[in-house]
Each structure stands twice: as structure tokens, then as C-alpha cells.
Amino acid sequence: TWSPDGKRMALTLSFAGRPEIYVTNSTGGEAEPFSRNLRWQKFNGGFESTDPMLLCDVEPDWAPDGKQLVFSSARTGHPMIYVADVMSRTARRLTFAGKYNASPSWSPRGDKILFAAQKTSSSNFDIYLIDPDGNNLSRITDGT
């Protein structure tokens, strides 16, 4: 996905064997590992480093202001939605429920994130909205 200013790309590559997010410039320079170098905010405070064995970060999408990336990660065993600050390299988890949360996308104003989620392994996917701070989760479709 292109950054809003068109100068960078965020993409999923698996140079090290596991899918992770890289960022490169528009001229095709060397891709820099992004998700490998993130500090992850713990739910109860503090930070933890990325464990390379947990890398499974995919589907990045830039915030309209270019300051954040939203993506899906299976680092907890099931894909969930995360947001990372590009400058500080800190990431926080947005979703905590369901079996599979994927395909996140920022709204044009940057005030919402749209994503697909599956409640159980036998249920259909539905479309959800959530605020970038993790509040106001709402289901848009009902594919029961």
C-alpha cells in the first residue's frame, strides 16, 4: 500500500521465513523491516519487543495522515488488528475478540478502521468498524 504522500510503500514480505511488514521508498530502495522492530504495548502497561518466532504481520494500510499503519497480526495465535505509530515504532492491539480479524482499512478521514472478522471458525465473516484508539467497535453486517 502506498503512503498518502506517495513517497513510501508498506508491504508484506517473508525474507526471514515468516510474513512481516516492510517499508520502502517509492524508488525501490532496500526494504526496511518495520514490524520486526516494533515495541508492543502490553495491555497492562509497558512494552515488549518483537519475538521473531511470532512474526505473522500482514495487510498494512496507511492512515490518511501517514503517521500510522494498521495491520493484521497472528502473534497471539489468531489474527487480530493492530495499529503502529510509524515514528516511535510502537504498536498496540485494537481487537481482542473473535477467531479471525483481517483486512483492515482506514477511513478517508482517519477516524475509523474497517475490517473483516469471523467470530468462530464455523461462522461467516462480518464487516466491523472501530475507532483507531480501540473504542466504539460496531458490526456493520450480519452474515449469520
Short description:
By secondary structure, the protein is mainly β. The protein is built from no helices and 13 strands. The strands form three sheets. It has a six-stranded mixed β-sheet with strand order 5-4-9-8-7-6, with no helix packed on it. Strands 10-11-12-13 form a four-stranded antiparallel β-sheet, with no helix packed on it.
Molecular structure report:
- By secondary structure, the chain is mainly beta.
- The chain contains no helices and 13 strands.
- It has strands at residues 8-13, 20-25, 32-33, 39-41, 47-49, 57-62, 68-73, 80-85, 90-93, 100-106, 113-118, 125-130, 138-139.
- The strands form 3 sheets. It has a 6-stranded mixed sheet with strand order 5-4-9-8-7-6, with no helix packed on it. Strands 10-11-12-13 form a 4-stranded antiparallel sheet, with no helix packed on it.
- The protein is globular.
- The chain starts with 7 loop residues before the first strand and ends in a 5-residue tail after the last strand.
- The relative contact order is 0.14.
How large a portion of the residues is in β-strands, by DSSP E? 35-45%
Distance between the termini: 31 Å
Shape: globular
Strand order of the largest sheet: 5-4-9-8-7-6
Multimeric state: single chain
pLDDT below 50 for ≥5 consecutive residues: which ranges? none
On the 0 to 100 scale, the average pLDDT is 90
What is the chain-wise order of helices and strands?
EEEEEEEEEEEEE
Q: Which structural category fits the helices and strands?
A: mainly beta
Radius of gyration: 15 Å
Number of helices: 0
The description of the largest β-sheet is: 6 strands, mixed
Beta strand count: 13
| Approximate helicity band | under 10%
